[in-house]
Amino acid sequence: MSSKPIRLGLTGGIGSGKSTLADILAQAGAAVIDADAISRSLTLPGGRAIPSILAEFGEKMIDPQGAMDREAMRALAFSNPQSKRQLEAILHPLVGQIFQEQTSAALSAGHACLVYDVPLLVESGERWRRQVDWICVVDCEVETQIQRVMARSQLSRSDVERIISQQASRQLRLASADVVIFNEGIDLAQLKHMAHEMMARFGL
């Protein structure tokens, strides 16, 4: 095993099964640093981003519990791209700060593999490519993505298609991949087997 930890960038479109794979890797001993979870934590009651969101967007974007009103913000961002950029300007530096904190903690704990779970890794361009040794893309058919997200989130087909259209294309993600996990027509045991094969490839 290498003394220097492997840094694996993990990405995939919505509904691809990326979070399931991240859980498998965590159970196998990897330290998973989850960009979505960090981003969500920033906008919960007492989250680091709440004061800036309140200052930028006003009380209408804060719910009675003191969290960001995600539905209201999502509607605003879809209708007003500038608002989306303003929110990203608040969140991205804080996400980066917590990423560094969690990376330092994982390194101190001696983890041999750091998994950076980043849904928009490909969309971020070279920024993430420079920070990881390998990129793993969890892939499946677009129709499978749609069906999975509709089943779990009660969103309409058009809503899911709109989310997918705002992410990198399947072709672009696959072109960026060092490793592809094709999560289509397999069960959890098979997905675990593929995950362990990938880790063995990295000497883990």
Number of helical segments with 4 or more residues: 10
Distance between the termini: 6 Å
The third-level CATH topology of the largest domain is Rossmann fold
Helix percentage range: 40-55%
Coarse shape: globular
- Which CATH architecture of the largest domain? 3-Layer(aba) Sandwich
Query: What's the rounded overall pLDDT mean?
Result: 91
CATH homolog superfamily of the largest domain: P-loop containing nucleotide triphosphate hydrolases
Looking across the biggest beta sheet, what order are the strands in? 2-3-1-4-5
User: What's the structural domain tally?
Assistant: 2
Structural class: alpha/beta
Strand content: 5-15%
Spans of at least 5 consecutive residues whose pLDDT stays below 50 are: none
The level 1 CATH classification of the largest domain is Alpha Beta
Tell me the major beta sheet: 5 strands, parallel
Protein architecture, described:
The chain is 54% helix and 13% strand. With 204 residues, the protein is an alpha/beta fold. The protein folds into two domains: 1-30 and 111-204, Rossmann fold (3-Layer(aba) Sandwich); 41-96, no CATH class. Strands 2-3-1-4-5 form a five-stranded parallel sheet, sandwiched between helices. α2 (35-42) crosses α5 (81-108) and α7 crosses α8 (157-165). The longest helix is centred in the middle third of the chain and has 28 residues, at 81-108. It is globular, with a radius of gyration of 18 Å.
